[in-house]
């Protein structure tokens, strides 16, 4: 009798377990539906926050403009400000060949302008004095995002003077260097104006807009900071040398003192 009773108990346990599984699955499904509802509310708030943040950015972008203008006027008083800034920037300097630097010595002003709605893109303008390389007074590159979020870019066509096209010269230099197995110079900085292959990942444009433009002075002053550090190291070295000289003089005095003592002892022995 005990065996059949045990079997009945096992069936009851299994049926109860199956019922618990069904209840658990139902509760899980309900929880998932509620999570989805909550997530929709979070997404709605995120969209609202983005709209509010955009309005704040637009407001302060307008407030910054007079200060950018004043800064540009002050920068114009400093010769070679922008070429120095670019040369001192680690990422930009890697793109500069010797002739690029020569051409950028004629660069007088850089301006970054975000479009009024900000999210649709921005433009970078480079203003040049009369120079031996190209006819343009201004070179610009624009970055756009269309309504679907696809990026694109366009730029000024550079009107190179005869024999001065740095983008072609760069490719010729690289070909010669590769044949001779020499160090290859970087592509010309100015090829950036003609490169529209991946506007969504334009590193140079992003570096200028997000890193250099907010505070170019920090990169212009890099050499001065290095000079100050070097001067500090030289002063430390001079102090150490001074201490060594003092130690040496002290050692010499001790030697002379010991010689005088020896002479005195010899004199005493002679008198005896």
From TrEMBL:
Residues 224-272 have a biased composition (Acidic residues). GO terms for cellular component: cytoplasm; nucleus. It comes from the Eukaryota. It holds the Pfam family NAP. Residues 9-31, 156-168 have a biased composition (Basic and acidic residues). GO terms for biological process: nucleosome assembly. The keyword Cytoplasm applies. The keyword Nucleus applies. Belongs to the nucleosome assembly protein (NAP) family. This is SET nuclear proto-oncogene S homeolog isoform X1. It comes from Xenopus laevis. The gene is set.S.
């Amino acid at each position: 009798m005990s065996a059949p009773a045990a079997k009945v108990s096992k069936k009851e346990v299994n049926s109860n377990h199956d019922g618990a599984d069904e209840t658990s699955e139902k509760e899980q499904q309900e929880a998932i539906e509620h999570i989805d509802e909550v997530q929709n509310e979070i997404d709605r708030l995120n969209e609202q926050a983005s709209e509010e943040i955009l309005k704040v950015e637009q407001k302060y972008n307008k407030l910054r403009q007079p200060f950018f203008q004043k800064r540009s006027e002050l920068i114009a008083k400093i010769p070679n400000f922008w070429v120095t800034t670019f040369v001192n920037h680690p990422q930009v300097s890697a793109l500069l060949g010797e002739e690029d630097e020569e051409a950028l010595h004629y660069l007088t002003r850089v301006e970054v302008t975000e479009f009024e709605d900000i999210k649709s893109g921005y433009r970078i303008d480079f203003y040049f004095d009369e120079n031996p390389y190209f006819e343009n007074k201004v070179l610009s590159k624009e970055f756009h995002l269309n309504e679907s979020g696809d990026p694109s870019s366009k730029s000024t066509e550079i009107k190179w003077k005869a024999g001065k096209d740095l983008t072609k010269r760069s490719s010729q230099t690289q070909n010669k260097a590769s044949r001779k197995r020499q160090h290859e110079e970087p592509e010309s900085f100015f090829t950036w104006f003609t490169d529209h292959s991946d506007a969504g990942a334009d590193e140079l444009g992003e570096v200028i807009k997000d890193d250099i433009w907010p505070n170019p002075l920090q990169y212009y002053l890099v050499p001065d900071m290095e000079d100050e550090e070097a001067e500090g190291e030289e002063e430390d070295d001079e102090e150490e040398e001074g201490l060594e000289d003092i130690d040496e003089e002290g050692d010499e005095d001790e030697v002379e003192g010991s010689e005088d003592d020896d002479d005195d002892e010899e004199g005493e022995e002679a008198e005896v």
